[in-house]
Amino acid sequence: MDDQTFSMRSMALKVYSPSLLYSIGLGAVTPVIAISARDRGASIATAALIVTLVGVGSLVSNVPAALLTNKVGERTAMVAAAGWAAAGLALGLFHSELPLFAVGVTMLGMAGAVFNLARQSYLAEAVPVAYRARAMSTLGGVMRMGVFAGPFMATVAMGWWGITGAYWVGVAAMLLALVVCFAIPELPSRSGERGSARPEAPTISMWGMARKNRRVLCGVGLGVVCIAAVRSSRQIVLPLWGESLGLDAGTIALVYGLSGALDMLIFYPAGKVMDLKGRVWIAVPCLVIMAIAMSLLPLTTGIGMFTAVAMLLGFGNGIGSGIVLTLGVDYSPVHDRARFLGVWRLMADAGAMGGPILLSGMLAVATLGIGIWSIAAVSVLGAVLFGYFIPRSGLKRIGAP
């Protein structure tokens, strides 16, 4: 598909609608996983550990996700992932034992690794380079919308069926995503692979892919680790600092929701800037703004300042919607793209888990304010890495051939 015939609306059914449904399912159950674990007899510490199994499942499944997507294709991988997620969530519908429930939570993370990689790879092939950042930013925005809307839908369902209502919403959303994925047309390149006349690209192991692209991974890739660490820590520091100010849970949730709403509203303009001016013009400001917001957060003393800084943090995160997805596709080789994206997502997931670990370590030896400033330093480091390694051109192919 060329630039003249391409339309962003053509991606609505192909990628964005199943992504929205999948994110709704994920958002519906995320707030109740810890509560469900507690209902099954878990201690507070164990319940927190159960929640992290979503990230663990994703982290350990990135490499298998790449191999699966390479073998069966993007559409089939998304169908399988949605079904696997629905099966995992179904374990929350019944009063299963805690170990079995933990397996279901891990399955949700595993499915996310496959689904996210497959839809990113599909967009990379289906969208012209001139629209790539807008397409990836829209994907990031749609994911945020689903995660934002999911808890509200779960709240309505829980009014009827109790906590299992959240899981009913999750299972229904995943199954709908599965059905919609069946309607996605196969990529032309995948259709061609069914014929034996097509010469196969030389295979390479995941370790070989990482070694071949080590300069990219040690430069821009480390910047991706930084931005993932800051983003995951952001979800922790806002509630913790709000609590330290003496704000009640409802007020903190409202401020967090306002920050998230701003986060969702600016993804498309940011993608357009990346397409027209270059990736660096969004990647660096995103991290600089979040670094400033993180630096200011420990200095806030009331709800007004706290809300203003939370909104600034949401704005910084929002303009970076899709930046990790876009850069991953930019640097991925045309052949064996899914394998490279598996390594890329592995680094992003490592950063997402490393941020809270760094914050926790700092809290163990210092104050909450010092911990937040350490995350701000990580944000500055990411801005420096992106500013140095990302080319100024947004349209030129910058990955390996």
UniProtKB/TrEMBL annotation:
Q: Is Protein biosynthesis included in the keywords of this UniProt record?
A: no
Q: Which SUPFAM superfamilies match?
A: MFS general substrate transporter (SSF103473)
* Residue ranges of domain Major facilitator superfamily (MFS) profile in the record: 11-394
List the InterPro entries hit by this protein, alphabetically.
Answer: MFS, MFS_dom, MFS_trans_sf, MFS_Transporters
| Superkingdom of the organism of origin | Bacteria
Protein keywords: Cell membrane, Membrane, Transmembrane, Transmembrane helix, Transport
Say yes or no: keyword Lyase present.
no
Q: Where in the cell is it found?
A: Cell membrane
Membrane topology according to the record:
Multi-pass membrane protein
Segments passing through the bilayer: 20-37, 43-65, 77-94, 100-118, 139-160, 166-184, 216-237, 249-268, 280-299, 305-331, 343-364, 370-390
In this record, what's one Pfam family? MFS_1
Record's signal peptide: none
Name the record gives this protein = MFS family permease
Q: Which organism is it from?
A: Paeniglutamicibacter kerguelensis
